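Objective 1b: paired records.
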Amino acid sequence: MSKKVLYEDKLAGACHWSMHMRKGTILRLTDLEGGANVGMLFYNPENMLERYNAPDTLKAQHTFKLTRGNCLYSDMGRIFASIVEDSVGWHETVCGNTTKEKIAAKWGEHSYQDYRNDWNQNGYTSFLVELAKYGLGKKDMAANLNLFSAVKVDADGNLVYVEGNSKAGDSIELRFEMDTLVLMHTCPHPLNPASEYPRKPVQYEIIEAPEVSEDDLCMNSRPENQRGFKNNEIFHLGLHGGCSHD
C-alpha cells in the first residue's frame, strides 16, 4: 500500500534543521549521493526534560547497531519512534558529534565570514543553534544518533568509521509513536577520515503512517519494546507513569 507524502524537502550537506513530528507520521530520510550522516536528537515537546536516551535504546534491545525493527527510547522509558524501513542495515548511536575544534583540526577553519554557505559547520554547534530556538542550551544536549553511519572495532579495540556504509538512494523510515521535537544536522560523522570536508545532502519526507497492527515488527521484536509501547499508551491517556527497563 502506497503511503501519502504530506511534505518533502532537501537538507543540504553541513546544514541543520528542527521540526515537530506528530504521532502517526513517518519521517523518511534518503541519502542522495552516498556517504551521508544525519545527526539526530529527540525531545518531548510537552516536557523538554524528556529526551532521547542512547544507552537505554541499545540496552533494552540488546544491540550495538540500529536498523529496521528497533525503537528509539526516551529517558522515561517511552518510545519516540520506531524504525519501520531501512535499506542501510546499520546506524550508530555511540560516537556523538563533531565540534568546532575537531573540524578545524581535520579540515581547516572555514568561517562563515570567509566562505559563506560553504563554511565548515560542526554537529555540536548545529544542535546548540536548534536547541536555542526552543529555549534550550548546552545542559540539554544528549548523546545523538548518527543515521547512515557505521563504525567497527579494530584489532586494538578502537572504533573505526566504515566507509561506503550508505549508498546513493538508501533510506530509513522513522514512525513516530508520540509527538516529538526532532533536531537534525548533516555535518560529517566525527570519525569520517575524508581528506576534504564532506557535504552530503539528504531528502526528507513526512508521510502518513498506517495504524500500528498487533503483529507490528518493532513492537514485537523485543519484550522491552512491548513495555515501551505500553508506556506510550499510558502517557497518551494522561497518566505519565512508566515502566523501568532495569
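Objective 1b, second protein:
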Amino acid sequence: MNHPSDRRKAIKNILAGSAALAAGATVLPSFKAAGQTKDMLKGNIQHSVCRWCFSDFTLDQLCVAANEIGMKGIDLVGPKDWPTLKKYNLISTMCNGAEIGLTKGWNDKQYHATLIKNYTEHIDLVADAGYKNLFCASGNRNGMDDETGMQNCVEGLSKIIGHAEKRGVVLQMELLNSKINHKDYMCDRSAWGVELCKRIGSPNFKLLYDIYHMQIDEGDVIRTIRDNHTYFGHYHTAGVPGRNEIDETQELYYPAIMKAILETGFTDYVAQEFIPLATDKFGSLKKAVLICDV
C-alpha cells in the first residue's frame, strides 16, 4: 500500500488522465511496440499490478497493458471500478475501500464500529462480484503497546470473520515498514502479524506480505516466507531501496524469492507495487513480470 503523499499524487494524476480523455486527447500508450508477454509466461505465478503505481494512466489503459502482459487482474481496486475490470476480463486481485485508512485501523477500538459496518458491507460486495481478497490495515500505534493493539484487532476482527468465512472472502492485513514509509504503523513485523493470525484462528484472515516493506524492517525474506507461508495470502513487490524497478538497480533478487514462494505451494497472486522510473513505464512492468515469472 502506498504512502499518503504517493496516494495524493496518484489521485491527482488519475484525475488529470481522465480530463485528458474527456478532452479527446490521444494518450493511450503504444504498448504493443514492446511486444506481447502473455504467450511467454510459464503459468506458475498469477501476476497482478497495483493500480496506484501507474496513476499516470487511466484504468482502461492499465487494463489494456495488463492483458497484453498476461496478468490476471489489478490490485487495490474498489467497487466503483470493478465494471471496468470486468470489461477487460480482469479481476480485482486485492479489493479495497472498506478501510478508513492506513493509520486508523483495527488496533484502535474507537474505529471498530465504523470498520465493522464498512467491512460487513464490503465482504458482501466482494463476494457478490466473484472476488476473494479484501485489504485491511492495523493502524498506527499512537503510543499503544503492541499487545493491547493485537488484542483490540482480535476483538474487532472476530466480529466480522465469521461473515467472511460464510461468504468465502479472505481479509488480508498488509505488513508495512515503519522505518521509512509508514512511521508508527503497528503491523510492521511478520512475527506480530503471524501471532495475530494465530489468535484469530481462521483461514479467512491472512497477511499481505509486502516484500519491499519487510526487506526494510526485518530482512531475511526467503526464510520468513518458508517459515510462515501458511499465514501469507498475497505478495507485493518493489525494489529496495527506493520502491522502484525490481531489476539489477536494487538489492533484492526476485527470481529466488519467487521460486521460494512457489515451493511453498502458493497459488494466489503476486502484485507488482513499484513506482517506475523509466520513461517506458509499461515496459518496466513487463520486465518486472518476466523477472518474477519463474
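Residues 45-292 form a domain with the TIM Barrel fold (CATH 3.20.20.150). The chain has one domain: 45-292.
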